[in-house]
Amino acid sequence: MSLNHLTWPEAKAYFKHFSHGKVDEAGEHAFIYAQDMIRESEDGQTLYIGRAGIGGIEFVYRRGSPEIWAFYPIEGDLQWKALGIEEFVKDWLAGDINV
To answer: What is the extent of the structural domain holding 62?
Structure first.
């Protein structure tokens, strides 16, 4: 199945503004994945759209919400990060989001 704004309406802003990915200010890593790198969880409830660059932590959408969460794979936990991707990108680049 193709991952796009029709299959993931919660991620409409990602597909419209960030589908080419986003690199951190230092240019060290893409904290927002390009569209060809995103993936969906096996149960179809989570869309992986980026990474923190440490600890395997990834940034995700959850079904039913445009909010951005951090997924911590070691613990299997989710932690809320932003109301939407625009806010997330702004705050990440400003250093206001911690993982």
So the answer is: 9-94
| pTM strictly above 0.85 | yes
Q: Give me the number of domains the chain comprises.
A: 1
* DSSP three-state, residue 5: coil
Q: Does residue 4 sit within a domain?
A: no
Please list the pLDDT of the chain residue by residue as tens digits (99 residues). Answer: 689 899 999 999 999 999 999 998 776 788 999 999 999 999 999 999 999 988 999 999 999 999 999 999 999 999 999 999 999 999 999 989 999
Q: Which residues contact 7 (CB under 8 A, 6 or more apart)?
A: 1
